[in-house]
Specification:
Elements lengths: L1 H15 L17 H15 L5 H6 L3 H18 L2
Helix pairs in contact: 1-2, 1-4
Length: 82
């Protein structure tokens, strides 16, 4: 989980050009507005090779929630492959 957390923080920091932490939420920085949120998710989906439903994207409005969403998806994928 720690490497996943670091990867998401690195993606967001690079994307927004700002220091991002696990506690950063949408709106904490000017660049993370609604358009920035969609573009961040596009970068995350590309990096991880995953697609998320729009309702999940809207709900995941913090780094912590994005990491948790990715963990949920990994667990779901693992269950489907059993």
């Amino acid at each position: 989980m720690e490497s996943l957390r670091k990867k998401v923080i690195d993606i967001a920091s690079t994307f927004f050009g700002k220091k991002i932490t696990y506690d950063t939420e949408m709106g904490d920085i000017d660049e993370w507005d609604s358009l920035g949120h969609i573009n961040l998710f596009m970068a995350i989906e590309e990096e991880f090779g995953k697609k998320f439903p729009p309702d999940k994207v809207i709900e995941a409005d913090s780094i912590e929630k994005i990491v948790n969403l990715l963990i949920e998806q990994q667990e779901k994928d693992a269950d489907e492959n059993r």
